[in-house]
Specification:
38% strand; single chain; alpha+beta; Alpha-Beta Plaits; 28% helix; 4-stranded antiparallel β-sheet
């Protein structure tokens, strides 16, 4: 499994959640503040699929 971190606005949460489920990923940590900060685990072979859809939201 690969661990990824994303930060995005609330209006993108539903589309992100849908995409995460499509790649069999799981939210491991989430913080709701001015924006949503999420850490997820995804199968390594699906990592690029999720990253390509949410490139600008990836955080280090």
């Amino acid at each position: 499994m690969a661990t990824l971190q994303f930060t995005f606005d609330y209006e993108k949460f539903l589309s992100f959640d849908y995409a995460l489920k499509k790649v069999n990923g799981q939210i491991t940590e989430q913080v709701f503040a001015g924006q949503i900060h999420i850490t997820v685990s995804v199968p390594i072979e699906k990592q690029c699929d999720l990253e390509s859809q949410f490139t600008s939201e990836i955080t280090a």
